[in-house]
Amino acid sequence: MAEPSAATQSPSVSSSSSGAEPSAPGGGSPGACPALGAKSCGSSCAVHDLIFWRDVKKTGFVFGTTLIMLLSLAAFSVISVVSYLILALLSVTISFRVYKSVIQAVQKSEEGHPFKAYLDVDITLSSEAFHNYVNAAMVHINRALKLIIRLFLVEDLVDSLKLAVFMWLMTYVGAVFNGITLLILAELLIFSVPIVYEKYKTQIDHYVGIARDQTKSIVEKIQAKLPGIAKKKAE
After folding, report:
1. What is the pLDDT of residues 91-115, one digit of tens each?
2. pTM of the full predicted structure?
3. Which domain holds residue 166?
């Protein structure tokens, strides 16, 4: 009599286990990166959460620090900014070190060095990690070199013309803004555009789609009037 009961219980167990499996692929949290692996998700998700203001304190600290540094570089030379930053950091650490030493002398305690926990941290870069970073960088470098060769040797006439028009427009941008000003504007856009797009995604996608269709139609008209491209497409 024990065997039939076990047999009747087995379908329920198998059905519960089979019902739990399909929810695994899509059962992540909204802020997770399900399309990425565990290793690649670490840095990618961190940047994603940073520019989307998931942690307001962390994003505010990074945004404020980098903005102050860029504004300082716009007003002073690089050597002056780096020197002042190092002096400020040394002033904080030396003052704290002296303060803790005085407190330990007065209280006659033996707490040791106040930064001992940070001094004992292993910050050495292994050869394997170094090679991984180099290999990842080489992939992007090779891709950039292929793109540069393709554009400058006019593999696709339209793409090369796009680059020429873009560089012509950049001459006017360079006449108005310098490099530091462009970096400041880029940082403001990086920390503002994603969160605005997230709130007004539907409206923005609608207008972007209209602009994309108009641009595509213009490019097709230009390609139709260029004899070399027209022949290549006909073949």
Report:
1. 999 999 999 888 888 888 877 788 8
2. 0.57
3. 44-108+134-223
